[in-house]
Amino acid sequence: MESSVDVARYQWEEGSRRLEAEASDPDAYEALMEQVAAVAEELRRRIGEHFTLEE
Asked: What ranges in 1-55 are assigned the alpha helix state H?
Protein backbone atom coordinates (compact mmCIF):
# COMPACT_ATOMS: atom_id res chain seq x y z
CA MET A 1 0.00 0.00 0.00
CA GLU A 2 1.29 3.44 -0.90
CA SER A 3 1.73 6.04 1.80
CA SER A 4 0.00 9.39 1.56
CA VAL A 5 3.40 10.95 0.82
CA ASP A 6 3.89 8.59 -2.13
CA VAL A 7 0.43 9.44 -3.45
CA ALA A 8 1.09 13.17 -3.05
CA ARG A 9 4.41 12.86 -4.89
CA TYR A 10 2.75 10.95 -7.72
CA GLN A 11 -0.01 13.54 -8.00
CA TRP A 12 2.54 16.39 -7.94
CA GLU A 13 4.64 14.76 -10.69
CA GLU A 14 1.56 13.97 -12.79
CA GLY A 15 0.30 17.54 -12.45
CA SER A 16 3.71 18.90 -13.40
CA ARG A 17 3.85 16.63 -16.44
CA ARG A 18 0.37 17.70 -17.55
CA LEU A 19 1.19 21.38 -17.01
CA GLU A 20 4.35 21.15 -19.11
CA ALA A 21 2.38 19.37 -21.85
CA GLU A 22 0.41 22.61 -22.26
CA ALA A 23 3.56 24.67 -22.85
CA SER A 24 3.03 24.42 -26.62
CA ASP A 25 -0.12 26.59 -26.26
CA PRO A 26 1.12 29.90 -24.83
CA ASP A 27 -2.34 31.24 -23.94
CA ALA A 28 -3.42 28.07 -22.13
CA TYR A 29 -0.04 27.76 -20.42
CA GLU A 30 -0.15 31.35 -19.17
CA ALA A 31 -3.65 30.85 -17.78
CA LEU A 32 -2.59 27.64 -16.05
CA MET A 33 0.51 29.29 -14.56
CA GLU A 34 -1.69 32.06 -13.15
CA GLN A 35 -3.84 29.39 -11.51
CA VAL A 36 -0.74 27.64 -10.12
CA ALA A 37 0.45 30.94 -8.67
CA ALA A 38 -2.94 31.56 -7.04
CA VAL A 39 -2.98 28.10 -5.47
CA ALA A 40 0.62 28.46 -4.26
CA GLU A 41 -0.19 31.84 -2.69
CA GLU A 42 -3.22 30.40 -0.90
CA LEU A 43 -1.13 27.50 0.42
CA ARG A 44 1.49 29.96 1.72
CA ARG A 45 -1.26 31.97 3.40
CA ARG A 46 -2.79 28.89 5.05
CA ILE A 47 0.25 26.85 6.05
CA GLY A 48 3.22 29.16 5.58
CA GLU A 49 6.27 29.01 3.39
CA HIS A 50 7.75 25.95 5.09
CA PHE A 51 5.98 22.89 6.42
CA THR A 52 6.70 19.30 7.35
CA LEU A 53 5.41 16.08 5.82
CA GLU A 54 3.17 15.67 8.86
CA GLU A 55 1.41 18.92 8.02
From this structure: 4-21, 26-47
Q: Please tell me the pTM assigned to this model.
A: 0.69
Q: At what angle do helices 4-21 and 26-47 cross, to 10 degrees?
A: 150
Task: Count Cβ neighbours within 10 Å for each residue of 4-24 and write b for 16 or more, e otherwise.
Answer: eeeeeeeeeeeeeeeeeeeee
- With cut-offs at 50, 70 and 90, classify the pLDDT of residue 53: low
19 contacts 32 by C-beta, under 8 angstroms: yes
DSSP state for residue 50 in the 8-state scheme: -
